[in-house]
From TrEMBL:
Keywords: Acyltransferase, Transferase. One of its GO terms (molecular function) is acyltransferase activity, transferring groups other than amino-acyl groups. The keyword Transcription regulation does not apply. Residues 1-185 form the N-acetyltransferase domain. InterPro entries: Acyl_CoA_acyltransferase, GNAT_dom, YpeA/RimI_acetyltransf. Pfam families: Acetyltransf_1 (PF00583). It comes from Salicibibacter cibarius. PROSITE patterns: GNAT (PS51186). This is GNAT family N-acetyltransferase. PANTHER family: ACETYLTRANSFERASE. The keyword NAD does not apply.
């Protein structure tokens, strides 16, 4: 297995990994729905070209037929524009939705890690570290001096991993009623 660009055909494998992270957000936006509906929602956007969950902004750890982990990453200045199609879809299909407007929770000069998830079968094997390293290398190659991400306040395990990798707390962000720590790594100076 290795890291490769995600493909549209990976959507069915990426969606369950993203669902682990996005479940509270989707339930906040459209109400408490079954896992099947959340997976359909995520799968729809993974297959599309230009949004924050799109395969075009993902790299996977796996082979041609399997995905053990996934990372979504992009320049920070794109964050608001990549969430617009998602919120436009929500407004159109869920007129009574409950969502926070697109927030300025990402510094535009950062390279942003939007989502990272590793299958429970493969946790503890260093896949998350490899995916983060891959995103950091892409950031460096593109001239970014900082990489950032948001981690839920109650996810101390992930926060410890990020701190071991050199990320430090910059501020608190709130999204859909959840509190996040905005962590930044300034490694490229």
């Amino acid at each position: 297995m290795n890291i490769r660009e995600a493909k549209v055909s990976d959507a069915d494998k990426i969606a369950p990994l993203f669902e682990l992270i996005l479940s509270p957000h989707i339930n906040h936006w459209i109400g408490d729905v079954e896992k099947k509906q959340r997976l359909e929602f995520i799968n729809h956007f993974v297959r599309e070209d230009n949004n924050a969950f799109s395969y075009k902004y993902c790299h996977v750890y796996g082979d041609d037929s399997s995905v053990a982990g996934v990372i979504s990453h992009y320049p920070g200045y794109k964050d608001d524009q990549l969430f617009e199609p998602i919120f436009d879809f929500l407004k159109k299909h869920y007129p009574n939705l409950n969502y926070d407007s697109v927030e300025d929770d990402v510094d535009p000069d950062d390279y942003y890690i939007n989502l990272i998830s590793v299958s429970s079968k493969f946790r503890g094997e260093g896949i998350g570290n490899q995916l983060i390293g891959y995103a950091e290398n892409r950031a460096k190659a593109r001239g970014y001096k900082t990489v950032s991400l948001n981690v839920e306040f109650d996810n101390s395990r992930a926060q410890k991993l990020y701190e071991r990798l050199g990320y430090h707390f910059q501020r608190t962000n709130t999204s859909d009623g959840l509190k996040y720590r905005y962590l930044v790594k300034e490694q490229f100076q």
